[in-house]
Amino acid sequence: MDMRKSRSESGASPLDGGSGRHHDWDSKRRRKMAEISQALSVTPVDVATLRRMAISEGGLLSDEIRRKVWPKLLNVQMDNLPEKPGEELRVNNKDYNQVLLDVRRSLRRFPPGMPDEQREGLQEELIDIILHVLQRNPQLHYYQGYHDIVVTFLLVVGERLATILVEKLSTHHLRDFMDPTMDNTKHILNYLMPIIDRVNPEVHDFMQQAEVGTIFALSWLITWFGHVLSDFRHVVRLYDFFLACHPLMPIYFAAVIVLYREEEVLECECDMASVHHLLSQIPQDLPYELLISRAGDLFVQFPPSELAREAAAQQEERTAASTFKDFELASTQQRPDTVLRRRRKEQVVAGREPGAVPKVAAGVVAVVRPRARRFVRLAVMGLTVALGAAALAVVNTALEWAPKLDLQLFP
Question: Which of 113, 153, 160, 328 would be 81's cystine partner, CB 3.0–4.6 Å?
Answer without folding.
Answer: 160
